[in-house]
Structures are given as structure tokens and as C-alpha cells.
Predict the structure of Cytochrome b561 domain-containing protein.
Amino acid sequence: MDAIGSHGSSYGFKLTYGLFQIVGMLVMVLIAFWLTYYCGGFAWSSEPLLQFNWHPLCMAFGLVYLSGNELLFSLSAILIYRGLRFERKRKLKLAHAGIQIVGFCSVVFGLKAVFSFHDAKGIANMYSLHSWIGLITVILFACQWCGGLISFLYPGIKSDLRSKYLPLHVVFGVIIFVLSCTAAIMGLLEKAIFKLGTDGRYQSFNSEGILINFIGLLIFVFGALGVYLVVQPTYKRVALAEDELLLHRRKVLESSQELREFEARLRGAYVRKAQIAQMAAKRLTLAQEKSEAADERLYFEQEAKLAAEEARLLEESKREESQRYARVLEVQLEERRRQEVERVKEQLKDRVELEKLAAREEEEDRQEMADVKRKQLELRAAMLDLFEAKRRWMEESRRVFEIEETLRQDYVKKRRLEEEDKKQQKAQTSMQIEAVKKMLAEKIQAEREEKEELERIREILWEEEKRKKEKEFWEEAARKHRQHVQELKINHVIQLRLREEEKAREKEEEARLRREMMKWYAEQERVELYTAQKRRAMEAEHRKSVETMILERRVAKELERQEEDRQWQEWQAEEEKRRRIIEEEQERLILEHGPTLGDMLPKLLSRTKIV
């Protein structure tokens, strides 16, 4: 937080600040004694009544004595700028922010305790004026802390905006502190009424009630002393020379056009480095694509070999299948022949039995010989018919077998022809695919080569154009610099010439004024008809007054010239300081970004020397 206003004496500061600290510590001690002796001490969720006791203690520590929020808002943090008025501002800012964050953590712990107590007892939250003012204080404190952190510590805003925000920051700090004191006193009163007012002990001047009232009075005194210390202009922090230098350095860095151009060149170097990295990545990608294309050709060759091997295995499997089919047909024909032989054997067996039957019948009944002979003839005829049928059946079976064999051979031949046709078609398809793949690979390779060539040409043209623009830029910068130096020299010569002319005009003016004054005095003397002696005395006196007037004008002019020379020297010294600050910042940026930029850094250094 930057100091504002003028610095006065510190008369009475130590006494007031010491009294303020004593009152604050006394408030903390009395609150701890009250909560321990009268309220039973401290606990957590196991004892909700004792858990509530953390609320006033944490709020008193975090808001009254450290970082005011709800009960009291960080007067110690506010007054650190009064108590440590002769320390570096950076340290004070860190201490101020640290005390505030510790106080805020204490406030959060106290709020957790009171909300847990209300939930355990079934009490509504945020119903009283004390809770409303406390919540408003907490919200304002959080906003105040974030605004101060962003504005004054990190990342920081511009000096003009910071100087405009500083009075608001101070005013809101005092307002939040007053709200914290108010919330603290209201909380003490609320606790006293809830605990002691129901049975009349508060009205009977109970010792606990008197202690609570005394704590409230001490908080009021604590707040009054704190507000007085904050608003007293003579107690403001003394600005150190280091702070003035840092503030001047920050203003120079914020308003420096050269530094902004230097940072722009740094960003441009990063962009160029990223572009170079992208180009290298593109080249690596193209190389990987070439490698992948070679791997793809090898993969297609392996696929062709696998397809040929698969066709060979398929041909062998088909050949084995045809052989197996032929064996199955032979087994079926053999089975049919065996069945036919069995039938013939059965028929012969039947014939033998018939002959035996016929012989028995011939022996048993000769009288029926004619019938037997007739039956034998019929049997012979039947047997002949049977043999004829058997012959026809065998011929038919042979014909069917020949037809089946012909059909099998035709099927095998047809399958062989189909396989050959498929093999030829597959070979033709493979050749066509290989031709198309080869053509596509050649086309892709040609497109890649053309693309690479165009990319190289584009990069070359871009580099040439970039170098040309950079050369033009730095030539223009050097020309402007020389022109600026030449203009300064010309202006200096013109100023010297103007001064000489002004001196000549002053001499002429003095002579003219001397003549006019002498003429006026002579006219006055003629009008008044002085005596010769008196006229000579008057002329001498008039001449002396004229010389005195001219001398005064000369002295005034000389003082004016000396003031101009002093202002010119101060401007030159200020410009030299500004140049040194910018050069130091440039060196810092180079050291910071040098390891990252690498090869891009020498170009940047060469350009910086021109500036």
C-alpha cells in the first residue's frame, strides 16, 4: 500500500499505539478467561455447547486482533503501516497480506463452529442482525483482500490506477473494521441476553454480565484507538528513498516504448522459434510418412506372398477333397458289389433248397411227377427270368456307375476349371491391385515431393521476406535514430542562435529604452524648468535608475537562462537514468529468456545494440 499525503511528526504515536496493543491483548485475555471460567471451556462435536465457545474466541482473534471480519477486522494488519513505518514497502505488503490470511482462516474456523452448533441444536442460521452484519463484514473482507492482493502485491496494476484505488482501499478497510467492532459488541450483547437474561441474572448485575459489558467497552476503545491511528495524517508511513526509486523505475518501465518494442521482439523470437519447431516437426512427419510408405509396400508384398500361399493351400485342399470324394465313390461301388453278391448267394441258396424240396417231393409223391416236372419247368423259367433280371440289373448298375463316374469326372473337371478360372482372375486382380498400388504410391510420392518442394520454396520466400522486413525495420529505426540525433543537434544550434539573437534584441531594447527614458526625463525637465544644476543631478539620478532597471532585467534574464539550463540538465540526467533502467530491464529479460530462446538470442542482441 503506497503512502499518500504528507508526512508529519510522530508526536504521541508510540503512546497511542502501545495503548492500542495493550487494549487488544486485554480483550483477548478476558474473552479466553470468560469462555474458560464461565462457559465451561472448549470442545468439538461431542459437546455442542462447548463447541460454540470456539466462535467468539476465533472471531476475536481473527477479526478483533488480527484480520477483521465479522467481529473485528484486522486492525493489526491495518496498523502495520503505522507501527513499522520505516521498513521496506515490499516486506510490509507481505506482512499485511499474511496477517489478513491468518485472520481469515481463524474466521472460517469460528463460523464452522457456530454453524455446527446451530445444526446440532436445531437452531436457525442467519436470523439475527448480528449474523447479518457479520456476514456482510466477511464478504467485504474477502473482496477487500482479493482486491488488495491483485492491485498492490501480485500481479499488480498500473501506477495511476493503483493510486486511484488506494484511497478506496483505505476507506473500505476502516469501514470493515468499524462493522467488525459493531458485530462483536452485538454478539456479546446477544450472548449475554440468551444466557443471563432469561432468569434475571443480567439485570441483577451478575459478575459474568459485568465482565461481558467490560469486554464490550474495551472493544469500543480498541476500535476508537484503531480508527484514530489510521486516519491521523501525521502517523502516515515515511516513504523511503528505495521506495521512490522503485516507484520511479516502475513508472519508467510502464511508459517505455523501447521496452515494449523489446518485449515485442522477444515475443516475435518465441513465435519464430515455435515456427521453426513446427517446420522441423513437419519435416519429421514427412520422413515418418516416407518410412510408413516403405513399410506399406513391404506389407503389400507380404500380403501378396500370403495370398499366393493361401491359394496353393486351397488348391491342395481341393485336390485332397477330390481324391477323398473318389475314394468315397469307390467304397460305395464296392459296397454295392458286395450287396449284389450277397443277393446272388441268397438266390442260389434258395435254389438249392428248392431242388432239395423237389427231390423230396419226387421221392414222396411220384404220382404227381407231371406236376412236379411242370413246377420245375416253371421254376426253371422263373430262375431264368430271375437270372435275366439279375443280368439286366447288373447291366443297369454298371450303366449307372458309369454315369456316376462320368458325372464325378465332369464335376471334378468343372471344379478344376473353376479353380483355374478363379486363380487366373485372382492373379489378374492381384496384378491390377499391384498396378493401382504402384500407381497410387508413385502419385503420392510425387505429390509429397511437390509438397515438400513447395514448402521449401515457401519457407525460403518467407525467410527472405522476413529478413527483408527486419532489415527495412532496423534500417528505418537506425535512420530515425540518426534523424532524431541530427534534429537534436539542429535544435541545439537553433537554440544557441536564438539565444544570441535574443541577447542582441535585448541590447537593442536596452538602448532603445535608455533613449526613450532619457527623452522622457528631458521632456519632464523642460516642462518643469529645472535649473541646470538640478537638471544635471536629476539626469544623473535618472541615469542611475535606468541602469538599475536594465541591470535587474539582465539579472532576471540570466536567472531565466540558468533555470532553462538546469531544466535541460535535469532532463538529460532523467533521460540517462531512464536509459539505464531500460538497459537493465533488457539485460534481465535477455538473461531470463536466453536459455529458452537459444539460437534466436544472438539475432535479438544484435538488434538491441542498434537501439
Remarks:
- Residues 1-8, 67-87, 606-611 have pLDDT under 50 and may be disordered.
- The two ends are 36 Å apart (CA to CA).
- The first helix runs from residue 13 to 37.
- Residues 562 and 568 are 10 Å apart (CA to CA).
